[in-house]
């Protein structure tokens, strides 16, 4: 007896060789019928022996292709006589043309080059030897080239590259791993590589252009490496954008790159030819090895070795004042071929690989951006395969316990899909605007939330343009008709303002979501917490988020659920002296804390008592009287409970980034760099003390307690005066602040019903802080934290989507 069935498979099942897998499976089971892609996923119409049906379904679930992720396999018996008759007339099993429709499947991220393709580009006998655009269904570009779904070649930026007979034969052969590999190409029919130098300015022209060399691919890599050895800066077009590349051992080249990018201190990313090369400079644990060789191929932040094991030393300007280095491995054939050649030529196989842009600007990714690269690079290694959307390198942090935390999701991760937890049965098509820093947009539909690629900081006009493009891109790609718009509560955010216009055009209105509630929700979603009405405690630690009474929050203890929270405790608020300037000039935050000490009698008194504190002497030269007047008159001095500004203040007290920061989180990361396992063990019982005090403000009746950290500043001053090492001070602060947070949680546990605590916010990217909190937490309280979703503002769009 035969079964006649429709089998619907959902999940990440398009563009991963899933239909050839089904075709081969059907041949194995002697089944007949057909398989196709559609907007829901993969659909199989099959005639199969009854006794074989369940085994067939089990094989789909157990042995799907490596890049696939099967979520559901639903079997429906066919009852229509016409459909049964049609299946009876089929003698074999076919792969048929895709169907379009309302989008309800997953767009796949780009995937790093597989071992088979890597072998081919290194095999002189293979027709793809040395070809920089080799790929198959197991690897290669996806999200960076797709324009519309279903994922077919005509819907990608490969549409203009007509396949040669050999590639077409592979493409049409279900037994070949390049069957329906949409970017399939070879040197005869695919994209081409080009090398260029600065051209001469011609007569009657006031501009410069790139002058392209007439070289074969192998010679281009030879020439590129020669330029790098000469200390030149190379712009290289990759999968999701252009990078600026230079010799990581060349101080002059690295410093020149900083000058051209206007990037004085933020660390550069590095690319190494292989993991062995990384191991000369970093402590590469199991988690780091896994991520370095993963299909996502992100930048991996790892502890820097105190002494490298290579005869070659990295330039000191790569990651100044940091204890970690960020390495990635080549993720596409172009990078693989370049790095292999560079390893032979240089002996060390390491290059600086940083995004091609000036500080604060988005990464260049379009061919039209190449003109602007003339000011940044000496030479250009590019190609003619268009990039559909900018995808910056993703970043993963390795934590002290050899776990990981994703800091930025983009190439290799995006678009990132999260299934709605149980309890969200009513599904409303929603667009979430995110925030204005580290922005990503999210859409919610069909029981899923899709997070866009990383867009950046919306203070920049070009990023604002990218934001509008990404919104249009997502809604078209997923054919979304929004019914609900979620934004941040901050009235001055670009994302909120833009969505006001968008909402009006769609007959909708914005629904503001408080910033820290969105953080709380994002971590709940990542941990699969059901929408059951149960309450949790959330500890949200970040830079700034708009709260109530025109105050800025950032060190919050929230009690509640997806739909409502109460602010039951917080860090004690301090004024942001000078408003937004306090976010960039740590000394302002230092003074805000010092002036609020219980026995503060002026800087002169403090300086007389703590003569060794250089930061106090520097404060004397600042316009303190003016700041006091501004505060007393409530001019540009909003109150803030920001944990980020606390870290800035303590860093400034220790004379780290006292004057200003050139990138977000600089003071905190440079301060954290002094923390080590040895230091934590040495100072485990010497953490600075925090104090829990009752809140007396009548306007904040639900806010019961405040975490006061004033005593920390006195303790740091005492240690500075006694000559305590900065390494010990940093450890004592982190231990003390972690203990203070846990003490507050324990106190709240006596008054509120919860068994788990949710941690989110940018400060939770401080892996030592979270590590210390986890180790100090009572065993009966579970810690819920981010891992795959960034703890920073990139994830708040997901939290907004479930409010």
Automatic annotation (TrEMBL):
Pathway assigned to this chain's UniProt record: Protein modification; [NiFe] hydrogenase maturation
Substrates-to-products reaction catalysed: C-terminal L-cysteinyl-[HypE protein] + carbamoyl phosphate + ATP + H2O = C-terminal S-carboxamide-L-cysteinyl-[HypE protein] + AMP + phosphate + diphosphate + H(+); an acyl phosphate + H2O = a carboxylate + phosphate + H(+)
Limits of the YrdC-like domain: 218-412
Catalytic site: 19, 37
Family annotation (Pfam families): Acylphosphatase (PF00708), HypF_C (PF17788), HypF_C_2 (PF22521), Sua5_yciO_yrdC (PF01300), zf-HYPF (PF07503)
PROSITE patterns: ACYLPHOSPHATASE_1, ACYLPHOSPHATASE_3, YRDC
GO MF annotations in UniProt: acylphosphatase activity; carboxyl- or carbamoyltransferase activity; double-stranded RNA binding; ligase activity; zinc ion binding
Domain Acylphosphatase-like: 4-97
Family: Belongs to the carbamoyltransferase HypF family.
UniProt-recorded name of the protein: Carbamoyltransferase HypF
Gene: hypF_1
